[in-house]
Design a protein that fits this description.
acyl-CoA dehydrogenase activity; globular; CoA_reduct_LuxC; Aldehyde Dehydrogenase, Chain A, domain 2; seven-stranded mixed β-sheet; alpha/beta; Acyl-CoA reductase; Aldehyde Dehydrogenase, Chain A, domain 1; Ald_DH/histidinol_DH; NADP
Length: 430
Amino acid sequence: MIQCYLLDGDFKETTHDDFSKIAEVVEQNRLAISAIPLEAIIDILGQLGKRILKQSSLNQYQGISYISLWLRKDNLRKICELNYSNLDYLDHFTKINTRLEMYAQPRGIVCHWVAGNMPTLAFFSAVQAILSRNGSIIKVPADYRDLILNILDLLNGIETDIDGNIFYGADIVRSIAIVSFEGKNQLLSAGLSKAADCKLIYGGSEAIKTIAALPQKESCETIIYGPKYSFAVFDQEYIESEQFEDALKNCVTDVALFNQMACSSPHTFFFEKSKYSIEDVADKLKTYFEQLPDNLLYQNKSQWMAANTINERARYLLSSDTGIVKSQGLEWTILINSESSLEEPIFGKCLFIKEVDDVRDTLDHITRKVQAMTVCIADQNDRREFAKDATYRGVDRITTPGHIHDYDLPWDGILPLNRLVRWVILKTEN
């Protein structure tokens, strides 16, 4: 059975045996969003960002204030320019040479499989479809369903005037369906897949393999955001600079956000040998963990996360070759070892730190599974060369302290809006 929480602009729970009715409604309603000029969509989303800030009930979710900043009109415009090169392509056939015109038409219905590791992920996924003027069917984890429904309810009441024409956020909302169903139900999973003109998939290895293998339209585009790993490196000059303390403070916030469950959450930090011992660095990190605000310090831990933390702490406490600095409770943990490797995530603000002779030694650990690296190298030319080597080996994003979670596009090496449209051409006589 499918539970549908938003359909045809109606925020009411309904049940369905299959996706035929849901897909039919979204298909009909996506015509209205496809008729909204891109500038009007950007203005409506910009207004939404301001309304989100004023909605106190949303403040319980981490990342909400960032959504408001991300929805600034100038930021959305830059994102579209990066993806489309020319915003006119979204609104009408536009000349690319004397005899050829091009238009970016929406693909149709985008079906989203959203992972449960980040509360704001479903919304960011939805905005990608909105900015490409597609309809959406979004399978949302139960824990974060209310968040996206509340945001879309705010969108429902927004309108904008472009050159004397009124455009409505309600038309965007009517192009979106929010659903849930048991993931193990292969029949319903296949039904959602077959409704898709594009699939946006977020999740772990098994989920990705399962969803990608579902039957689908031959014309369906599939965009996959699979499991990723993130870490940080610091060179000696940076460690011994005035920037180091602020960088550590910001990096601790990066670790704490989303309880280290996001693919962009760093798990291992490498520090070049410097005037500070690795134990000195651990003490500095300890100070900043202790200064975290309560909403980041005291986050709920699942049973398996707590068990992993306890087991890892015990392993380090029993070893003579490792070090540990930790909170009295299970709030945070710093684990020290000398193995030059990326550690398996423990999550829940459990950070591995290591000392290396040269930050370039860490390049050997990079695979295509590394999403982001916070790279703190003082000399900017050296940092750029390091970034060139790291991204060649597989890293998608080189970031700065405090910004590893920023939802910059490209993401995972993908310009998604570019792939959420069909690039069509019109040949002219002259």
